[in-house]
Amino acid sequence: MKFTIKKPLILASSSPRRKELLSLIGIPFDVVHSQVDENIALTADRYPEYVMGLAEKKARAVANKYRESIVIGADTIVVFDRKVYPKPATEEEAEQFLKEFSGKTHSVYTGVAIINDREKITFYNKTDVTFRDLDEELIRGYIASGDPMDKAGGYGIQTAGALFVDSITGDYQTVVGLPIAKLTEVLRKEGLIELKDGETILDN
Ligand SMILES: Cc1cn([C@H]2C[C@H](O)[C@@H](COP(=O)(O)OP(=O)(O)OP(=O)(O)O)O2)c(=O)[nH]c1=O
């Protein structure tokens, strides 16, 4: 399946997972790392606004330099018991996160921002993830692999963190970091991409 796009597309992200997910729609795009201060204020329980705000911040930082492009930014957080769990700062913190999630359900929010001609479109998705009862040996073994440290909440559902998951309610890709089905729907609705037979008009 191929889409056409009228302008160059940029993913403002250093996440290899987001790059892989955006590749699924077959549009050529460039990746530009977006260095932003992720410490923005969270107004009580307004998680959607928080992730969409950070996604916009990431996208704008890149869009300011690439004005002729469509720029996409995203942000993912884990929320449990009304607390936000970002990437763990230390292995001890990762262990603490995973112990707290054990046998319980947490929510993963991913916000997305699309900047085109300085106009923004933002949306978010939320997926609930229920963890199995985890034993300490499994948690320690996982942490020793180094996998949790670059991931919100300290686990990757797409990596060995899958061993912790009992069930999910919602879109899997939202947990990995980019709700690609909804993103494609929004890009199509806004007329930014079009489904076409044959090749894309831009070369990768
Ligand atoms: C919960 C969960 C998160 N994650 C990842 C998605 C995000 O990449 C990361 C959350 O951090 P983010 O700050 O959203 O993203 P990032 O720093 O990796 O990339 P960038 O800001 O440059 O776009 O956690 C997984 O890969 N799997 C999971 O199961």
Automatic annotation (TrEMBL):
Tell me the keywords, alphabetical order.
Cytoplasm, Hydrolase, Nucleotide metabolism
Q: What class of enzyme is it?
A: hydrolase
Active site per database record: 75
Its annotated compartments are: Cytoplasm
Per the record, the major location class is cytoplasm
Q: Which residue ranges run through the membrane?
A: none
What are the site positions for Important for substrate specificity? 17, 76, 158
Per its UniProt record, the required cofactor names are: a divalent metal cation
Q: Does the keyword RNA-binding apply?
A: no
Keyword Lipid biosynthesis appears in the UniProt entry: no
Catalysis: reaction(s): UTP + H2O = UMP + diphosphate + H(+); dTTP + H2O = dTMP + diphosphate + H(+)
According to the lineage, what is the superkingdom? Bacteria
Tell me its EC number(s), please.
3.6.1.9
Similarity field:
Belongs to the Maf family. YhdE subfamily.
Question: What is the purpose of this protein?
Answer: Nucleoside triphosphate pyrophosphatase that hydrolyzes dTTP and UTP. May have a dual role in cell division arrest and in preventing the incorporation of modified nucleotides into cellular nucleic acids.
Could you tell me which HAMAP family the record lists for this protein? Maf
Q: What is this protein called?
A: dTTP/UTP pyrophosphatase
Protein source organism: Sporosarcina contaminans
